[in-house]
Every structure is written in C-alpha cells, then in structure tokens.
Amino acid sequence: MQFKANASCGIVVFAIVGLPLSAVADAGASGRGDFPTTFPAAAGAPPLPMAPVLAAKSTDALPKSRDALFDDDEPNNDSEPPPATKESLFLDDQSVKSSSGGQAAGGGQGGAIKGFVENVMAYTTSRPRHWSEMMFRADLTAQGDLGSAVKWKMGARFDYDATYSLADYYPRAVANDQRFNVTSRENYLDIGAGDWDFRLGRQQVVWGEMVGLLFGDVVSAKDMRQFILPDFEILRIPQWAARAEYFKDDFHAELLWIPVASYDDIGKPGSQFFNYTLPAPAGVATVFRNEKTPSRNLSNTNYGLRLSVLRDGWDVAAFAYRSMSVAPTFYREIVQSPQPTVVYQAQHDRITQYGATLAKDLGSVVFKAEAVYTKGMKYQVTNLSDADGVVPQDTLNWVVGLDYNEIADTRINLQFFQSHFFDRHPDIIQSTNENGYSVLLNRKFGDKVEAQVLLIASLNRSDWMLRPRASWNFEKNWRLAFGADVFKGPPLGYFGRYDNSDRVYTELRYSF
Predict the structure, then answer these.
(1) Does residue 97 register a pLDDT over 50?
(2) Dihedral sign for Cα atoms in the order 205, 210, 216, 221
(3) Can you give the residue ranges of every domain in the chain?
(4) What is the DSSP string of 168-233?
(5) What is the bridge-based pairing of β-strands 341-347 and 285-288?
(6) Which of 97, 361, 406, 459 has the most C-beta neighbours closer than 10 Å?
C-alpha cells in the first residue's frame, strides 16, 4: 500500500484494514544468508490484515482504448496529478499523462530520454532518533517505434541511499541491500495487429480501478523496503510478461502470461520496516533463512484473463488470475538445540484469484467498487505447536467508494472496505471481518502550492497512520515537498508495529 501525496494541493485522509502483511515480503532473496536476530518482545510482529495495498495515484484503471497503449506510461512531471474532475477518474494512466502534457510516444527510430531525478531525506523522530533515508534517485525512460505497428520502451532506475554510508545504525546486511540499487523498469515491445495489440517484455500490469487502492491490482509486485510510503511509481515492480489485448467497440479482453515472475521486495531483517513475523518468546532467538523463491518451470508461471465492457455509463470488468503469490508467507520451524530458536523462511504459495471492478459517474459523485476472492493463501498462527506455523485461508476483499469534486479545487473521496476470512482458523491473528474506511480531502491553492494530510485507521482496533504533507511546484518541472509519517497502534497492528518509526521528510524532484 502506498500513500504519498501527489502534487495537488490538498488534504488526504485514508483509513484501512485488509490483507495480512505476513504475506507482504519479497523474493529478492537470492544470495541471502541466514540472518540470526533476537527481537524484543514487541518487535517483529506480523501485521494484522490490511486492505490490499494503497497507492497515491488517483487512477489506476486499464486503458479503455487501443491508442492509450502506445502513449507514455510515466508522467513527465509525476508530481502533477490528474485533474480532479469526474471525467479524469475514468482515464487510464497513459491517457491522463498524454492530456496533461506528459511525454508522448517517441517517433521514428528512437525517442528522447525522459524521467526524473530526486532527493528524499527522512529523519526518524522516535527514539532512538536517526536518519532513515538519504535517497538520491534517477529514473530514466526512452521510447520510440520500429515502424507503424511496432513500438518500444526502455527504462532503468538508479538508487543510492547515503544513510548506509554516512551512518552506522543498521546491520551490514541491510546496508548492503539498500545502499545502492540499479533496477530494470519497463522494457517492452508493443505490436499492433488489427483489433489485437501485443506487449512483450517487462511491463506494468494494472487491473485495479479504485482511487489510491490496489485491491484489484493482483499482478504487480511491490518494493516494500520503505513500507507503503514511496510514490506508487516507485513502489510497483514490473513483471516480465506476454500480454495480448483485444479491442472491439466498448469491449476489451486481456490475456496475460508471466513466465518469469517478480516478487515483493521486503529487504533484510533489521531494516526500518522489516516486521513481518510473530515475536519470539523471551530467551528464544530468531533466525531468517534464505527466502525460498519458486523454481522456474511451467507449473510456476502466472496467467490470467480480464474482460471489461462499458454499458450505459457503467464500466464493468471481471478477471481470473492463477499465480505464485507476489507476497510471501513466513513459514516457521522451532529448533531446540543448541539453543531454542524460531526459524522463519519466506515462501510463496500457489493461489487463485477471481475479481470484479465497476465504476459509474452519478453526476455530483463517481461511484467505484472492487472485490477479489483469493483461494490458497496462507497466514501465520500464534499456536507454537503448529508444525509450520501457517494455515490456508480463503478470503474476500471488497471496497466501495464515492469521489466528490464539485467544490472548486477540492476533492473528497470516501471508501469503505473489508477483508472476510472464510471458516476462520482460531489461531490466526485476524478477525473474521477486518473493516476499514478511507477519506480523502484534496485542495489546491493556486497552481503551485498543495497541502494534504493522510489518515489510515482500522475499524477493528486503534491502529492508524497519519501523513501530513505540503508541496510546492516552485519552478516548471521542479517540486519541493515537506511531510511527516506517524504510526500508532498495538504491536501486532498493521501500523502499530512501526510505532517507533515516526519520521519527518523532505523531497526535491526535477522531472524532464
């Protein structure tokens, strides 16, 4: 889940509950060695269920036209959000960027390099106080065409976090993991053939349509090393995929195959936001083995189908998706000698998901809803006598929302959502129904300044996150932002586990 204030002046308030983050971990474990750690009793707790990941994008819908597929997927100035109009809520990311002055698809054999460079400075105010982020990032993208029916896109990101060079607060394994990263972004070919379009390569696949929520976005992996705090474009990890799309009038069909999947990246034990497991009893050590990622064979590939149609103003879609879960579950083993030790290993379950989305402009408000049924996911249990520490649970996650923007320069979004656990096992942490709500208030002050505050809270317990933020577009393509992230709740709460991670931050970004 991510909530980062985009650059529109406003106030944002969100509240949530949903999927358990015991599953929010990543498969970037190749080469990881066992990491012995003894956590205090209140640390290392797995999150209570939280609604599927939230993001700060105001629209994450799929393209509604073939032409949108060939527009740029990344904004020229990502700090500039889509216009707060009812019409904009139904636009996909590509068409929004095209209409707001984003980069257009490159012509001829090649395209100019687009992207952004930014600096994020974050200071943790909870004791012990320390610098927790000094990030310098460059995100570069180029695109063009190889003829009228073939287009291409290439992208890469370079991250350097000076925190791990200038401070000695985190373990060496964490520093090595998060100090410097070079990652491949979207790198694909688009091929048009009549009513069909094909995209081959590393790509973003967006199936959700809620404002700021990723309920239906079951395909994307996420970089969770900074929790849900970074911008959505930073959070999402592209997948290596082959995608075929069929367009006919108001009907759209999408076939997807992912032969080599990407998985969530949760970093290393001891990092600022690595709290995914139950705390060990007093005097018992904790060890994390290398993450067990699925082997590369045909049975472990991911595939899905999505169908959508627009009728009488109703935008309705349904999908089915079979995959290895992008978020791992921490399996547990208890070893008695040479000393009592709880051994955790992140593994990925084979799951099946069925979902539906709908949206309708009702005049003064826009109505949206999503539901996703997940079968085969496993969750941690508190019973220490359980052999592997996990049990399977089928879940239904659903959300409904209203978006109101009739007041000039102001936007209000209300959403309620729930995670229901079928035949709930008595030893899991989550309640049968985990409920949450969100409220988004957003207002601009002229063309340059924006203020916002984000609150996320559980309805089942006192567990919340507060994110005030102000941003200033002081020059063309330049954005300066100030904000804070405050976490409160019980040690096993989705946000409460980060009760000692309150921070203040600044961001400076130049987009080109």
Answers:
(1) no
(2) positive
(3) 12-31+46-511
(4) --S-HHHHHHHSEEEEE--EEEEEEETTEEEEEEEE------SSSB-SS--S-EEB-EEEE-S-HH
(5) parallel
(6) 97
d(CA 261, CA 266): 16
- Angstrom CA distances, 18 to 98, 256, 383, 399, stand at 34, 26, 22, 10
Rounded distance between C-alpha atoms, residue 378 and residue 390, angstroms:
6
CA gap 499, 505 in Å, rounded: 17
pLDDT in tens, 285-300: 999 999 999 999 999 9
Q: Tell me, what amino acid is at 440?
A: L
Residues 6+ apart with CB under 8 A from 449: 9, 470, 471, 472, 473
Q: Higher model confidence: residue 233 or residue 254?
A: 254
CB 126 within 8 A of CB 499: yes
Q: How confident is the model at residue 109 (pLDDT cuts 50, 70, 90)?
A: low
> What DSSP state is assigned to residue 143?
E
pLDDT in tens, 416-434: 999 999 999 999 999 999 9
Rounded to 10 degrees, the C-alpha dihedral 100/103/105/106 comes to 150
DSSP-assigned beta bridge partners for residue 237: 221
Residues recorded for the chain: 512
The pLDDT score that the predictor gives to residue 23 is: 31
In 3D space, the residue among 359, 265, 365 whose CA is nearest the CA of residue 308 turns out to be: 359
Pairwise pLDDT comparison (156 vs 465), residue with the higher score: 156
pLDDT in tens, 365-405: 999 999 999 999 999 999 988 999 999 999 999 999 999 98
Torsion of CA 31, 34, 38, 43, to 10 degrees: 40
CATH top class, domain 12-31+46-511: mainly beta
* DSSP letters for 466-493: EEEEEEEEEETTEEEEEEEEEEES-TTS
Tell me which DSSP letter residue 166 carries.
Answer: H
Do 439 and 455 meet the contact criterion of CB atoms below 8 Å apart? yes
Q: Are 83 and 100 in contact (CB under 8 A)?
A: yes
The answer to whether 494 and 15 have CB atoms below 8 angstroms apart is no
CA distance between the termini of the chain: 27
Q: Distance (Å, rounded) from C-alpha 176 to C-alpha 159?
A: 13
Gap between the Cα atoms of 133 and 18, Å rounded:
28
